[in-house]
Amino acid sequence: MANTSRGNFREVSDGVFVHKHAVLNVGEFSAGKGTVINSHARLIGTSVKMGRECWIDEYASIGGGSAFDPMASLEAGDWLHMGNYSQINIARGVRVGHEVGVGIGTRIFTHGSYLSEWEGFPVSFASVSIGTRVWLPNAQVNPGVSIGDDVVVAANSLVNSDLPNGCLAAGIPAKIIRDKVYPAVLDREKKMHLLNRLIKEIRETAGVDVYPSEDFDGLECGDTRFLFGNRVITGLVSEASEAVRNQLRRHGIRFRFEPWDGEYRQWT
Fold this sequence. Notes:
This protein is mainly beta.
């Protein structure tokens, strides 16, 4: 949870926490267990639905102009992350898959107008669709855009046209820099290099001893195994294993598992 006192949060539903200084004014709201809405975040509009373990950071905003129109909505999967001062305008509907990072200062618009369309000025109202495993660090997405799965958009980019699965895009306007590059398949040498780097970082930052798994497909912490290929955790829950799980999350390696009666169980 946030660094502020736990007492500053209220539980609005099972495992969903909202800071006392956040604004939640949504006609139809739902979020999955582990979701946290931090101080000064604003969720305003007709409908907002999010999956599990979403993180809405300080001063992030869901809503914007026309947020109470009948079609205004956000439907997001698990692990939506909205950084400080990011914004999702939901006027004409936004659909977001799992593991989407809306970085600091990123803006997603479904509503763009100010001057008279009758006099030829540009006006745009259209929904936005963003796939699963997409990273938007300090970028802007314009109305009507569709972004596929496994996409990375470089910082300071303007996305005003569709982006296909697996690409790296950058620029104003954003262009495909590399096509079909994500996800990448790592060879044994690259896996070992990554595992060694993770081991070093976890030991230094969390003070926990971890080792490569027997088949080099993940890490072991005592009797607990974190298998990266199929994203499975087996074994007992401990303070050390939770520290490892948290550090792996910071590297984008997330598991649909939670502590349950001393062991890890898959989300239900």
